[in-house]
Model the fold of this input.
Amino acid sequence: MTIYLDNSATTKVCPQAAQAAMDAMTVRYGNPSSLHRLGMEAENLVTAAKKQLAGALGCAPEELLFTSGATESNNLAILGYCRSNHRSGKRIITSAVEHPSVLEPFRALEKEGFETVYISPREDLGGNFAPEDFVDAVDQNTPFVSVMMVNSETGCRLPVEEIIKGVRRKNPKTKIHIDAVQAFGKLSFSAKKLDADFISLSGHKIYAPKGIGALYVKKGVRLSPLLFGGGQQNGLRVGTEPVPLIIALGAAAELCRAEQKALLPRYEELNRFLLEELSLIPDVTVNSPEGSVPYIVNVSVKGIRSEIMLHFLEQGGIFVSSGSACSKGAKSHVLTAMGLPDSRIDSAIRISFSHETTKEELTAFVSRLREGAETLLKVK
Amino acid sequence: MKEILLAKDGEIALKGLNRSTFEDILIRNIRRRLKPVGKFSFSRAQSTIYITPEDEDIDLDEACERLKKVFGIAAFCRVAVLPKEFAAIREGAKEYLYDTLKEAKTFKVNAKRSDKQFPMSSPEIMRELGGYLLSQFPHLKVDVHDPDVTVTVEIREAAAYLYAKKIPGAGGMPVGSSGDALLLLSGGIDSPVAGYMMAKRGIRISAIHFVSPPYTSDRARQKVETLCEELTPYCGKISFFCVPFTKIQEAIKQHCPEELFTIIMRRLMMEIAQRIAEKNDMSALITGESVAQVASQTLRAMVCTDAVCRIPVFRPVIGMDKAEIVAISQKIGTFETSILPYDDCCTVFSPKHPKTRPQLDAVEKAQAQFDFEPLIAEAVENTEIKGIRPDF
Done:
């Protein structure tokens, strides 16, 4: 029995995406740049996938670049923009709870002479963010702001709409990048309405394979490439397009778009159920701030280290995450920024749903968690 | 030009009637290690093993890299095989050692004639060959005391062998010539080094590791298996014993005083290890303990652990500093794996203030508060065994 509740780390590829990829690998395997018929077929596949993705994101197909994943999308947006537009200022702003693929490029720019500002969540708002903190940090020398839409560890929703509006008013020249990896495909939003300049997406969080992502670049916004080569994708992201991965992403995005409306209420119901059940276990505390997305829940079990609870659940066939799967063993920078005590950070686990998650699975999870809370030895 | 490898026995050359047995073991070990490189044939004479490649395209550089890690070899050479005629030897030396002699400033010639049928004596060969090389490489000077290059010619039964470089071997005794022992492998830096050192003395190593799921992860176990793999170029195949240890740790935690947790755990580990050793015909245990490194490695603590041991416990790094152990671990290539950050069963429950000067009778009394025997028997019974072979 496998109960997979670690869908914010990665997801099981959906049959639609797998079949699309298989077809592009074994039947329509041409190189989109080739002049012959097989090449054209492959090019058409890419174009169609781009349309699917554009439809799901609410943008024009030509505003999308395919990348190797959200890490590359984030790097490309941040470094590709800031390095070529440093004349419009050197003060760049982000949150303290971003993914490392945002924080590390910021640190790299810091070494190149940029001034970086990291906005922390507010303890008086229960770990949520105040939009004005971002807006206040922006000045006439701010070329770039990067904010995630949903935090991957806690499910915290950052007030991106208000931030974007406020920043636009304060400095119309400031470009805004939104890391939407944990939101895209699950929350409904459109790139056009959101009015961001860049949006990063990842395939493997939405039932496509690992190794594919996308970057939305608003029409008219100039970006410099990080890689140089054969001129594909207008020279902004060169290299032969990974057609199987691209069309898998298209298929997955299409699926999410179709499911989204019905799924969100279901996630909310599952979330209510889960939190209610968890509230009956005395040693459990919820770390996700008020108003978090329903499909990510972060909790601590008093006195039991995350890793031990994770392996105990695993023995019962249940897979969750301890903090973020990206940095095994390191203390969560997100929970630290929220000001939680070490004892809670060390015992935090994250449960994240997929479109296949059921109430029965959550019941099994809660009962195993309770068993762990009661039987596992408490380590100081 | 045909090349072969000559491996000189180390210590085993000094052994008496057992020498031939030791040489058999050494040849068997070399054969196994070189098998993935290609086909070789082996023969031996005068404390030397002749390793002859049977295929043209064998990568001798790779073979040399592997030979460096085989215990029992004092030194080895990559040599040119020449006909036993002086003219051929002369021309062969010029061609085979061309680059070496071009770069050298001083040289000397050394000759060993074990085939007394050869018409020239050793001093004659040295003189003649030296003179010829001087005429061909006019920049060279002879230096018999401290030459840059020593050209060695050995006139043996089958052929003449020529070389300029002796490569130091791993030394020690061939693995398998000194019996079997069981290494307690935690995943840290010290225990793989301890295993390496005992293998160098000819002991065939098996490894035992304790796991405590869910308190320890599969990755911690995998790390220890990787360490075993990294030892195989030196030790050969390693039998890996993996002991389920959760229940025992939980029982110690529940029934014994916290400050004695580690010491009682070590005693139980030793007990289980020696039962497995005895069951599998191994004569001793090996640990990576070093005096005073941690609380369980004080003299008093070791008195308490050894009190349960019926078979010898070897601690080859006992007198070494951490830095010395780290240096060996880096040399043999286990260091990077050892420092991967996974909790092992020794660290998960370790008390904040362990007793550093435990009294044996107090420890025995504390341990007697609970009957561990059924859990020990169960752990031994449920131990998993896996053969870990060199990863080619």
